[in-house]
Specification:
InterPro entries: 6-blade_b-propeller_TolB-like, Strictosidine_synth_cons-reg. This protein has one domain: TolB, C-terminal domain (Neuraminidase, 6 Propeller), CATH 2.120.10. It is 19% helix and 34% strand. The chain has helices at 2-31, 54-60, 126-129, 138-141, 144-147, 221-227, 320-327, 329-335, 342-348; strands at 73-75, 86-87, 96-98, 103-107, 114-119, 150-155, 162-166, 170-174, 179-180, 182-185, 187-188, 191-192, 196-201, 207-211, 232-238, 243-251, 254-259, 265-270, 275-280, 289-294, 298-304, 310-316, 354-360, 366-372, 383-387, 390-394, 401-405. It is globular.
Length: 407
């Protein structure tokens, strides 16, 4: 009996030691003193997101059984680097695109190829910024603030001016002949516009644009989603008064923005919350915000076609494991402090890199869905523009564009 009691006592002490060891290891992981995790060195404080349930979204989302996006053509491989937004000038020339090396380039035909149209930074230099294929890798990140990172592009059809949302230099404009863009607005009430992302121009001249976060810049954009923080804003710049106004705030990674054909509302995406939203800017509902659609993945830009329909670029896709983390911020605090690469942690949650593009009408009804489940043509898609009988598809992270005849 005495031996049995002694063994039970030793087993109890062993269990206490195991619990203590687990607590120490868990505490070490959470503290991450050597910054070995993907969020090491950052004030990482996850919060719960306002996101629709996974099963509810996926049950009603149409599937593209033919993976039609995968039949698109890769164009200009290793000639354009991270072409986030694709734009055509008022004469139909282009496309133009902002690149990860800080330039805005124009396609001038087979004879002349891609030509530099504009720069967003006075400090731009070929030696520092023109790193070719490395422009879309971490090697460029330390220079992005100097070189610039032009994202959303829009031509003013009346003036021919090109308006630019640059991630570091705010809202900018350059004339029809290109050159060095000049800043229009870089701050509000003394606080910087930290992450200008996309824009659109109202018929009255006002420019609506997104400021994705007041906490993280573009280089650290992953932390916006991982943390779930909602400090993003929809802003409006009024050229006559040269003033900038906050239209909406408290947004979770506001990204693409598109004004409707009749100018009565605009759509914008909240990337973290995987949804498409509507803001009424005219009429009886002016100022109201409505949910248009919950999406299966993480939306980027929105672009309108000639019929007044909206193309939304979506990086896919949500998973059930991800939903558990979204609904339990404390789990994210632990999970993303594990000493593994972000790619490995994402893969463990079942995340895959492929793209979906979806066409919506002005009521929010889904008209078409095209995807590329194998990631053959597009693993990450940032914008879809319908022009000249084609879909022109940009990507913020790879060195090509894609085209697909449509319809």
């Amino acid at each position: 009996m005495e031996k049995k009691t002694r063994l039970e006592h030793e087993d109890g002490r062993l269990q206490q030691h195991v619990v203590l060891l687990i607590a120490v290891v868990l505490g070490f992981v959470i503290m991450d003193p050597f910054h070995m995790s993907p969020v090491g060195g950052h004030d990482f404080k996850p919060v719960r997101n306002d996101i629709a349930p996974y099963d509810e979204v996926m049950a009603s989302w149409p599937d593209d059984n033919l993976s039609r996006l995968g039949s698109g053509n890769l164009e200009h491989v290793d000639q354009v680097f991270g072409p986030e937004s694709l734009e055509f000038d008022p004469l139909g020339n282009g496309p133009y695109s902002g690149l990860a090396d800080g330039r805005i380039v124009k396609w001038s035909g087979e004879d002349r190829g891609w030509e530099t149209f504009a720069l967003v930074s006075q400090k731009w230099s070929e030696k520092l910024c023109a790193t070719g294929k490395d422009s879309t890798t971490y090697k460029q990140w330390k220079n992005e603030e100097v070189c610039g990172r032009p994202l959303g592009l829009r031509f003013d059809k009346a003036s021919g001016n090109l308006y630019i949302a640059d991630a570091y230099h705010g809202l900018m404009v350059v004339g029809p002949d290109g050159g060095l863009a000049r800043p229009l607005t870089t701050e509000i009430d003394g606080k910087p516009i930290l992450f200008a992302n996309d824009l659109d121009i109202h018929s009255n001249g006002s420019i609506y644009f997104t400021d994705t976060s007041m906490k993280y810049n573009r280089v650290n954009h992953f932390f916006i989603m991982l943390e779930g923080e909602a400090t993003g804003r929809l802003l409006r710049y009024d050229p006559p008064t040269k003033s900038t106004h906050v239209v909406l705030d408290g947004l979770a990674f506001p990204n693409g923005v598109q004004i409707s054909k009749d100018q009565s509302f605009l759509l914008f995406t909240e990337t973290t919350n995987c949804r498409l939203m509507k803001l009424w800017i005219e009429g009886e509902k002016k100022g109201n915000v409505e949910l248009v659609a919950n999406l299966p993945g993480f939306p980027d830009n929105i672009r309108i076609n000639e019929k007044g329909q909206f193309w939304v670029a979506i990086d896919c896709c949500r998973t059930k494991a991800q939903e558990v983390l979204i609904n339990n911020p404390w789990m994210r605090s632990v999970y993303f402090r594990l000493p593994f690469r972000m790619q490995d942690l994402a893969r463990a949650m079942g995340m895959k890199m492929y793209s979906v593009i979806s066409l919506f009408d002005d009521k929010g009804q889904i008209l078409d869905v095209l995807d590329d489940k194998q990631g053959i043509v597009m693993k990450l898609v940032s914008e879809v523009r319908e022009a000249k009988g084609m879909l022109w598809i940009g990507t913020v992270a790879h060195n090509h564009i894609a085209t697909l005849p449509y319809p």
